[in-house]
Every structure is written in C-alpha cells, then in structure tokens.
Amino acid sequence: MLVKVTRETRIPLHGLDFVGVIDRGTNLVEVRPTTLCNLRCAYCYANAGGQENDFIVDAPYLIEAFERVVRFKGLDDIEAHVDPYGEGLLYKDLPGLIKGLRGVPGVRRASMQSNGTMLGGGRIGELRAAGLDQINVTLNTMDPGQARKISCRDDYNLDAVLRAIEAVPGSGMDLVIAPVWFFGVNDAEIGRIVEFYKGLKEVHPEPGRVRVGIQNYLAYRTGRKLGKVKEREFGHFYSQLRALEKKHGTKLVLSARDFGIHPAPAYPSDLVAAIYQAKLKKRAVEVEVVAPGRNGRESIGTALGWGVKVLNFSGAAVDPARRPRLAIPAARFDVTQDFLVTATLR
Ligand code: SF4
Known about the structure:
single chain; alpha/beta; TIM Barrel; CATH 2.40.50; 2 domains; seven-stranded mixed β-sheet; 28% helix; binds iron/sulfur cluster
C-alpha cells in the first residue's frame, strides 16, 4: 500500500526515522519525502522495497515542518538535505519540493542523496534550475557485474550512472561521490573509484566542486545485510582510508567541517521531555495511533505533536483505523539523540 502523508492524515513529520524531518543538532536538516526506491540493494539500511507499505509526503506539509525547524535554529546558513529512506527521484515533484525548501528564509544550500540511476534525461538541469546545489551519488563499484549484484537489479546500468555523475559538476552543482566500503567485497573497487574521482577533479578543480565521501559499511538491525560481510570498527576504517590517501595522493578523510556543517540548536520536542519525566516517575505516556507503519509490526503514533514508531510484539491487535489511544509505560520508549522515538509493546 502507498500511504500519502498529508496534514489530514495527522502522521507527524518529526520523530520518525523513515519520513519527515530529521534534525541532528547541526545546520544541516534532513528531509525524507518518500520511502519508494527503484533498487533493492543487498545492504539496504532501510530495507527499501521489502516493506508492506510505502510513504510519500505531501510537499507543502513537509516544507512546513522543515520551516519550523529552520525558524527555531535562527541561522542563515542552513542546508536542506533531501535524504530519503528510498530514492528521491521517485518523488513526483522533486523540483517543486527543492524549490520550496530552498526558498525558506535562512536556507543557504540544498543538497540531495541519490542512487544515480534516474539522473539522466534532463533531470540534472531540472534540479539545478529548482535551486539544488549539490548531489551525493552512491557508487560502490566500477564493475558492472558487481554493481548488479549489490543493487540486486539485473538492469542496473553502471554506464548510465557514471555518465550522470560526470554531468553533475558541469551543471554548476557540487558532486559528492559516495561509496560504501564493504571490506572484503569491494576493496579493489574503492581504489578504482578514487582514481575516477581524481580524473573528475582534474576537469573540475574548483574547491568543493567534486568530492568523494567514502563511508564505512554499517549493518542495521532492521535493514538488509550484504551476505556475510562484517562491519569493521571505525579505527580500522580510518586507518584503511589513510593508507588509501597515501597510495592515491589525495585527501579522503573528510569531516563535517569539510562540508560546512557545524553544531546548531536542535528543535525541541515536548514529547521527549514528557517521556524523560515519565521515566523518572515510572509513569505511562499516552500515544494515539494514527496510521499503519511500514510493516505489520509497526504503526505510527503521535503525542504532543511528535511522532512515535510503535512496534507491537504484544500479540494483541493494534488497529490504526480505530485510532486507539495507548498508555505505554515510559520504560518502553527509546529516544535517540536525534529525538527519534520508538515505543515497544510487549
Ligand atoms: S540503499 Fe538506497 S538505493 Fe539501495 S535500496 Fe536502499 S534506499 Fe534504495
């Protein structure tokens, strides 16, 4: 089922990890407009394409939530970063969304994450015209067979992705090539990607126009795992990156500062404050369930204007259509440092 998230659905756009607005306490604010994806990557952290329900958020509703966060921060160098649990180019009016985000007072840049497979056919120019400043494109290998294997798509067209990557810097936008390093699987390919990056950088030497941001593979509990590949600790990852820097004579260890990201006040959550209070007093917090989640175990709840992902392991039915109000013991809530809230029913 495809759930269209509008104001009328009362699905909150703060507090959930898979849709809405994520504020990690910096000047970069993440925007998640959809969970739809055209790939089925074997390592997908979001298990995109493997869920029963997908979500697509109405642009004005999403922009309104984003604007609330930006207004609270009161800065003039906000970056709107479209980073869905899926592929942003499947969002029908992506240019309209980008234009809306870019037009919010205080926003200096707009960027997005993409798997790169849908960037052909004039899309790059269209996004640039809408005000997009940067595209981060995932590129895990230079080998077409391995690319098909990792993306779990026989029709994954690596040549088309590489052509799109090459076209981004010429459009006036910045490009970040974003490979994930799966140790023991794509080690040699990471070196080839670095050489590809260096070639592009020679053509576009302007500072920041072309960068490569190699990421360490992290296996998420609820995501898909790439075969038997183990995640490696960050100490190992950075020592390997430094060795690659030496070998290829180029900077590869990047920090948030290299991307102009700095700490900024986080948009506060009344619900999170109430949960902490309730934990101290060993009380329950009332949550209204307003919609199904991505699968049968999951539903979306709301309280005090904030979202709660409700995971049901209790065996008792929770029917979102009836909008039940659940009194959930505070101890059953988990709150991340980014104020993403999960409540588990047992
Ligand atoms: S990793 Fe990204 S591109 Fe691949 S299936 Fe998941 S959301 Fe889609």
